[in-house]
Design brief:
Elements (H helix, E strand, L loop, with lengths): L5 E4 L8 E4 L5 E7 L2 E6 L4 E4 L12 E2 L8 E10 L2 E10 L2 E10 L5 E6 L5 E4 L9 E4 L10 E5 L9 E5 L4 E2 L13
Parallel strand pairs: 6-10, 11-13
Antiparallel strand pairs: 1-2, 3-4, 4-5, 7-8, 8-9, 9-10, 9-15, 11-12, 13-14
């Protein structure tokens, strides 16, 4: 169980909860990946959630690529995509913004985020509400979607479309694109 300030565990056979306060940052998102629970905090650090033998959340040592700092980072999401863990960033560049994706590369030490130019046959689904899970879809053409795209729920009152479709890396206008509400504009 997670609150804004702590992680709690109740173990069968015990009479109380074990409390593990967060030291620095709030947890933004938790995903299950390759048998582990991983959490991204508000400082964009990746942590492994350990329940046994002790409750804890050690940080995953990561190298951030130089290409990850371009533009002003606005939002980030973790998305499990088959056997990959992706970090999807929405960043602002001048008067435009775009989605970028980075794959967790576990084959090198230290682990690093590797920039992806294409998602291949994958489509990703993101939501601003952190209580909603992110997910991925392989071969989205089968249901009429597009690969290499990111889908975000629409807030349009004039369109019946439930999703806004954005291609990975596509620059979008901050003023006119329907997804601008992510940036705090109504």
């Amino acid at each position: 169980l997670f609150s804004r300030k702590s992680m709690f565990r109740w173990q069968v056979g015990t009479k109380s909860w074990t409390d593990h306060p967060f030291v620095a940052a709030r947890i933004h998102q938790i995903v299950s990946f390759k048998g582990q629970m991983l959490a991204m905090d508000s400082l964009m650090k990746l942590n492994t959630i350990s329940l046994a033998p002790r409750l804890g959340m050690p940080e995953v040592p990561l190298v951030w690529g130089e290409d990850m700092t371009a533009g002003l980072l606005k939002k980030s999401w973790l998305v499990v995509c088959g056997d990959m863990l992706l970090k999807v960033d929405l960043s602002i560049h001048d008067l435009k913004f775009c989605f970028q994706a980075y794959r967790l590369d576990l084959s090198v030490k230290p682990t690093k985020w590797a920039k992806m130019k294409k998602l291949g046959n994958w489509a990703l689904f993101l939501c601003l509400d952190r209580r909603s899970s992110t997910f991925s879809c392989l071969n989205s053409e089968r249901w009429g979607g597009k690969s290499n795209c990111i889908y975000v729920p629409s807030r349009s009152k004039v369109s019946d479309e439930p999703w806004i479709e954005v291609e990975l890396g596509q620059l979008m206008s901050r003023r006119s694109h329907p997804i601008s509400y992510i940036l705090g504009r109504k």
